[in-house]
Amino acid sequence: MEDELIKKIWDDVLVILKDTIMATTYETWILPLVPHSFEDNCFCVLSGQNLAIQIIQKHQAQISKALSEICKRDVYFKVLYDEDLHKKLEKERQKVKKEEEKEFIKNLEKKLNPSKFDGLKQMQSDCKLNLKYKFENFVVGSNNKFAYAVAAAVAKDPGKQYNPLFIYGGSGLGKTHLLQAIGHDILFKKSKLKVKYIKAEEFINDLVNSIAKGMDKAGDKNKKMNEFRNKYRCVDVLLIDDIQLIEGKVRTEEEMFNTFESLHNSGKQIVFTSDRPPEKFENTPDRLKTRFQMGLLADIQVPDLETRMAILKKLSIDNNIRMSSDVIEFLASVYNKNVRELEGAFNTISAYTSINQIPITVDIVKKIINFNEKRKTVTIDGIIDIVSSFYNISPEDIKSTNRAAKTAYARQAAIYLAKEMTAESFPCIGEHFNRKHTTIMYSHQKVKTDLLTDRHLSQDIKELTEKINS
Ligand code: ADP
Ligand code: MG
Predict the structure, then answer these.
(1) Strands 165-169 and 269-274, sheet pairing
(2) Ligand 1: residues within 6 Å at CB?
(3) Which of 40, 342, 291, 35 is nearest to 166 (CA)?
(4) From ligand 1's centre to the CA of 295, what distance in Å?
(5) To test the ligand 1 pocket, which listed residue (241, 306, 339, 347) has its Cβ within 8 A of the most ligand atoms?
(6) How many A from CA of 41 to the centre of ligand 1?
(7) pLDDT tens per residue across span 369-408
(8) Which residue has its alpha carbon closest to ligand 1 atom 19?
(9) Weakest-pLDDT range from 54-58, 99-103, 114-118, 161-165
(10) Which one of 177, 198, 316, 337 would you pick to mutate in the ligand 1 pocket, going by the greatest count of ligand atoms within 8 A of its CB?
(11) How far is the CA of 410 from the centre of ligand 1 (A)?
(12) pLDDT tens digits for 410-457?
């Protein structure tokens, strides 16, 4: 078939897939595919990314269905890895990346007025790595989709909706990244607005210093406090990181309340991050707690396996480090709780292997991160035990062919957790559950999809994950 027609079919398929496949997966793995041939009912595409083959297999049925719909007959779908395409993509990516950075710096110097430049500089000196903390560098998965979307909405229209925005979630899951991304975006696109990023800890120290300085000299008391207050109240956007640190500090809470009221009443945007939701601020006065809750609350959960893999893939591309799909999958399954740790492992491995000039293989990686199979606490059988006692059934039932609704539900949860929380392959998990690996793949995918809409299931999975990790 002619190349042009093949391309046209693929373009039509992409339109369907864009709406049916999650955006991160679509953009990272599907969009870069290149249609190659269409013979004997088999539509073949090429990929320049080794890892794509594995990920795309999970969506094989969806893609074949879309192809069949477009061609109005049964069409099979095949994806092949292509080394030349890999090299080409890699080259283009490096070029785009360099140009983007150049453009960013150039715009900064040229377009920004001095006060905005100070704002950005201030933000950068406050939070070191910050140029990296932009929306473009944030990998969106089902765990952070909502927080990302509302953060982007706030950056687009600060003070208009979702005020305050309160982002909460465990350590190392991207709260600071999103908070600073809001700051960058506003500073960059709305040069007139004054943005201030501050860690709650600095707010506390600043207050303590102002009080202490005010005490040195009679008459200075009000002056110092006014200086302190003005600093936080003259901004258009106040970004406060780790607000939980003020809990129980009465004077700071009072100042925070006043700052909040002053800004909020004049339509200025406030964004908080916290390691817990407002209702868990046990020692904070209700009037401040209700202020935290009066806008929008957005939580960030632990990313699932596919998102963790996408984060690693992005790191490897951005740093120009070649990492095979086995290594990516292995690391993503070992570091399953915290993106900071996942990134830390990536940095250690890339530094070690490039200094010693050795390839990055799973065995070498295991040595570098001191991975000890025996020390590994999360096992498939351990998961089966915990899940069965959680649902009050026996581990034998989970492994059996019993189709009672409750057993099937527990079994699917256990299969999902086994894939997400251990480094085992689908066939190996299949052996533990007495099932074929395709059945395991199906169950894993089903739970993953259901998690997006089923709050009950998502609560169960959250509790089970905590039990398994504890
Ligand atoms: P938190 O503030 O929640 O403790 P951070 O925002 O400091 O976490 O994130 C820890 C590290 O993980 C940062 O380097 C951040 O860039 C990275 N990170 C977290 N989530 C993501 C994501 N979704 N995409 C890309 N990088 C992420
Ligand atoms: Mg943080």
Answers:
(1) parallel
(2) 137-139, 144, 171-177, 311, 339-340, 343
(3) 291
(4) 24
(5) 339
(6) 44
(7) 876 554 456 889 999 999 999 999 999 999 999 899 999 9
(8) 174
(9) 114-118
(10) 177
(11) 32
(12) 999 999 999 998 888 899 999 999 999 999 999 999 999 999 888 899
Q: What's this model's pTM, rounded to 2 decimal places?
A: 0.67
Q: Token pair for residue 424? A: 């085992």
Q: Which of 419, 239, 197 is nearest to 329 (CA)?
A: 419
State pLDDT tens for residues 84-121.
Answer: 888 888 788 778 777 776 676 666 555 544 455 555 66
The percentage of the chain sitting over the pLDDT mark of 70, rounded to a whole number, equals 90
> For residue 141, which atom of ligand 1 is closest to its CA?
23
